[in-house]
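Posting for a labmate who doesn't have an account.
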Amino acid sequence: MLVIIGAIIVLVSVLIGFSMAGGSVGSLIHISEFITIGGATFGALIIMSPKKVIVDLFKGILQALKGSPYNKATCGDLLKLLYGLARVVRQEGALGIEQHIGNPSASTLFQASPRVYKNHHLKHFISEGLALIVDGKIEPPQLATFLQQEQKVLEIEHHAAVGALSKTADALPGFGIVAAVLGIVVTMQSIGGPVEEIGEKVGAALVGTFLGILMAYGFVAPLAGRMEALGEQETAFLKGAAEGIMAIHEGAGPRDVAARARRVISTDCRPSQGDMTALFAAS
């Protein structure tokens, strides 16, 4: 929601400033310019990005528009899940969690933490890490290495999508110039016509440059920055989950497991001590 509000502020500020300077907003609307810049930009994105990167990019944009899923409520669900899993291990041994990580859709623990269950990356990360514990053949250093490698893969995939969007932002001013040059070519074809017509065509050409710069620095580049911030939040949650998994493997108690995971997550997402007590009581 904040992304949408920010985009509206950028657009409205530009249009109001243009109107106050005596300009007509209607003179900025040229469909041909939008088609040239938008089509060329999308085509370049397809050329430089594999299919997975494009899919991840659009998913990331939608997530940025909806808002970050990594908040205090999600942190509470994560800690609640880790606490529940650790308690099962304490009571039944490592094999007790096999049914939960093998089929999360039928797991009462995962279902009780819906924000984790609906987050594919987080759910997969926890399930894969705990599956190694269930096997009973992995040492703590090996488990730590596996969790770090898994985090690295997810970070690389996220940075690939952000990088594609950043390169798109860098290309937009250039495509704006392309649209402007095409407009000048059209103007030169009418060079012998009325002055008003020539002026209108030159203005339309300049709109291409304006749109390319505005879209690059007013919308696309800031959106890439927002996606990068979401990636950092996801990394923090993955590190929290990894810390909880390591604690479970080391035989820590349920409260200690949740406490160790909590310390890794950013302070704005951490539940308070009072919330933690209520969480443990509800579990």
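Reply:
Got it, the structure tokens are right above this. The two ends are 32 Å apart (CA to CA).
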